[in-house]
Amino acid sequence: MEESESLSHLSIELRPHLAGLMDALPDGVLLVDVDGRIVLANARMEELSGFDRHDLIGKLVENLIPERLRVQHEHNRHQFQARPQLRPMGAALDTRLHRKDGSDLPVDIQLSPIEIDGAKFSVAAIRDVTERKKVEDALSESEERFRTLVESAPVMVSALSSDGKLTFLNKAFETITGFRREDWLGRHFSDIVDARDVTGGSDRIHQVIEGEPVEAREARVRTASGEYRLVESVAVPLVGRGKVVGTLGISQDVTEVRLAEQALRQSEERFRKIFEDGPVGILLVDGNDRIFDVNKAMCRVIGYPKDELLGESIFTFVHPEDRDDARTRRQEVVEGRVPSHHVERHWNTKAGGVAITNLTVSMIRDVDGSPVCGLLIVHDITERRALEEQLASHAALANETLSTLTPRERETLTLLRDGLTAPEIAEQLVVSVRTVESHIASSYRKLGVRSREEAMARFDRLLAAASASPFRTTPD
Predict the structure, then answer these.
(1) How far apart, in Å, are the Cα atoms of 98 and each of 228, 369, 401?
(2) What pLDDT band is residue 323 in, cutting at 50, 70 and 90?
(3) Which domains does the chain have, with CATH numbers?
C-alpha cells in the first residue's frame, strides 16, 4: 500500500495491522481524510470497484460516485464532516458505486467517523446489494402488480381490523356503493351493512382470524342512494409482520344475478304449474323419442299413470294407423324443415280404447339451434268427436225422415208452423182446402203423429237435428 501524507504520522507498527484488519473484512472499506481523499482501501474494495487500490489512494472519493450524483455527494460529505456520526449514507436513496468499467453497482454504505493519532477520518463500509436489489425490485414489481390488480378488480376488496373497522377499500367499493372510500376508512363495517346481516359478523371475523373455515356469505350493503346491493363475500386472514391482524375480504355484487335467479325460479314455477295442472296434455321427449316428462292432463287422456309413461317410446302409445305419419312429421320438425306440426292424432288408451286429440309438435332448441327435446301439446277431442258422431247420426235419421215428405207436404207443414189455417194455406198455395187437408194427413202418417201440436213439435225437432250435423246440411 502506498503511503499517504495523511498517514505519514502513523506509527510504523500500526500500518500493517490496520491494512491487515481492513483486508479481513467481508465488505469493501475506504478510509477517507477530511479533504475527501482516499487514504486506504481494502482488497474487497478492489473487487467491488474494479480499481487497483494503488489507483484509488489519493483520489477524491467522488470518483467512485456516478457522475450525476457527485456534486450532491460532495455537499453531503461536508455535512457529515460538520456533524460526524455513525449513519447510513444516502438513507432512502438508490446508492450506487461507480466502477472502473463504467458500470454502476448498487451498494449499501455505512459511514462512521474515526480519529487516529489525532487525525480525523471517515470510514465507509460498502456492501454489494445487487442480489438484494433484485429481490427488492421483484418484490416492488409484484406489489405494484398486486396494487394494480386490486384497484382494477371488478370485485370489492376490503380489509378489516380485528375489531371490525375498515382499514382498506379498493376502487370497486366506490363503484358498487357510490360512496368515497376515504370517508369509510376507520369506520365499523356494521355502519354500511344492513342490520339484518350484521348479526354474527363479529364472530365471523374472529373465526377467520383464528383460521377456522368460513363459507361465503351474502349481505346487503348500503349505497349512497339509500338502496342496498347484495354482495357475496369470502374472507381470509390478513397477516402483517408475521401475525394475523385482521381479515381480507373479497365481495362480488350479486344483486342482478340473484334477481335473475329469482325471476328464473318464478318463471320455472309458473311453467311447472301450467305444465302440471294445465288443462291440455303436455309431453317432453328426448332425442330417442322417449318420454322424460308428462303432465296430469296427458295421463288422463290416455289413462296411464305417469310412472308407466316415463322412459317409454312415444310411439308405443300412438295408434298404429298414425305411427308412420307421426314419425315422418316429427323428423321434419327435428331437422328444422318446418317449425311445428298441427295434426289430429289417435292414441291407444290403457283401457283398450282410442283417444282422439289435436296435436301440436315442436322442438325446444339450445342457443346454437340444436334440438334439445321435443314438445308435444295435446288437446283431447274424444268427447267432441263422439258428440259430433252422435249429432251426425241424429241428423242422418232426421234427414231420412224428412226425405219421406214431398216438397208440397213440407211446404204445408212449414205454413202450419207459421200459424196459418187450412183455408189460408189453400189460398196461398192456390189449391183446394181438401188438397191441403190431404197433405196434412199424409204428413201426420209419415211423422207418426196424430195432432197438429205433435206434428209441429216433431217437425221442429227433425229440422233442428238435421241442421245440427257438423258434416251435412238440411236436405232440400
Answers:
(1) 61, 71, 130
(2) very high
(3) 5-133 (3.30.450.20), 153-257 (3.30.450.20), 278-380 (3.30.450.20), 385-467 (1.10.10.10)
